[in-house]
Amino acid sequence: MANKTRKEKDAIGIVDVPSDAYYGSFTVRAAKNFNFEKPDGVKVLYRAYTKVKLASCRANFKCGILDAKKAKAMELSCNEILSGKFDSSLLLNYYQAGAGTPFNMNVNEVIANRANEILGFPKGSYYPVHPNNDVNMCQSSNDVTPTALRLALIESFPLLEAEAERLLRVLGKKSAHYSGMLKVGRTHLQDAVPIEISQELDAWAGALRRDLDGAKAAAKNLQEIPLGGTALGTGIAAHPQFALHAADELTKICGCKITSSPNKPMQISSMNAFLVYSGALRCIAVTLVKISNDLKLLVSGPNAGIAEIKLPEAEPGSSIMAGKVNPSIPEAVEIIATDTISCDIAVTLGCMGGQLQLNVLTPLIAKNTIEPTISLACAIRMLNDFCVAGMEYDLPRCKAQLDSTYVFATALNMYLGYQVMAEVVKESLKSGQSIADVVVDEGLMDKDDVARLLDPKKVTVPQKVDAALARKLQSSPAYVAFLKKIGKSVALH
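-> structure tokens emitted (493 positions)
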């Protein structure tokens, strides 16, 4: 049977179709023309098309325009496709003719051929169930495709959301574990002021939470569909009740509220709902790159870099430098996230590609929204499981770096003045003494006041200035003497 074919005739001519195939002539032509490897995300999109067909079958039966025998056979066919039984007959990739017509017809043909087989008729007969007249009833590729893409993203997004929530929980636990512990904060890659380790972790988590909330809102917006608008959104050749019935059926199938758009011409001609969704993915990707870059910097060394954190060893880091271990997981996450950002550019161009009443670049938009949704979920899972979950801060290293730098100087600005503290910092760097030691040695402040003002619980949160202490310090003989020493006659603060 594998080498046998059946003859099918279409508007162009005769097409040889494998005898045992559930697809038909349209799919054969499309597979020949668009012969590309099929990514996993295409399976999600095919399932989404099938959900549209299942809902449409039920809706047409409710409308009284599809008879019971056909409807029952078509519904069984759709359920078999959703179970994965006919994956080998769903052949196409994203790269195909515009508006997703080959996708739509591939699914129509498989449903029709299987339905006819169930009813006792041969594949390729398209009787009594016809791919256009029955399976595509009250529909067009132009309203089915943007609807299917919405459903594909609605199906894909929960995994991304779940992985992001899981990472947020891990970051929250890490933050609680390191609460109250200080490290050097940096700006311009230079030592700046102290920061709590938990604040560093909370900054990552806060950014991811903000971006995830934006993505959730964008995904929810996809629950409004243009199905029933047929070719241009006008609803020509569709039953008046079809759109509402189809939306109700999709609500049952998808497990979330699907509504029929009141402006179907807009949803068929404008794809900006996907642009908003893609932009939300881009935001998540940018935050993942930020976190990955921070991790790479913080683990740098281990002896000649910052080396404030220790990451789980994922793999050997070099084919020539024995013992070297690289931050492989953050690197891989950065690659995936950067690819997501490039996908957003493609979606932008795809959404710009609409002309008059139709955007024919929906397959491009599909590829560059579905695939990054899946890959970002994988990236976050990888970052969580193989990196962040096992990450540890090197607390002795963090303390040593705090003690060896001038990051506490800013906390004393309001008491000793910016200019004085600038000179203290210079002396600290020159002598190797801590900021506290220089201040005490110069007689600018006693040890108790220094210890109180540089209390770790105070230097990472806003504090009221003790104005009386500031006046006392700046009127002391030691302070006046220090001003003369640095060539200043008044305090600058």
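The mean pLDDT is 94.
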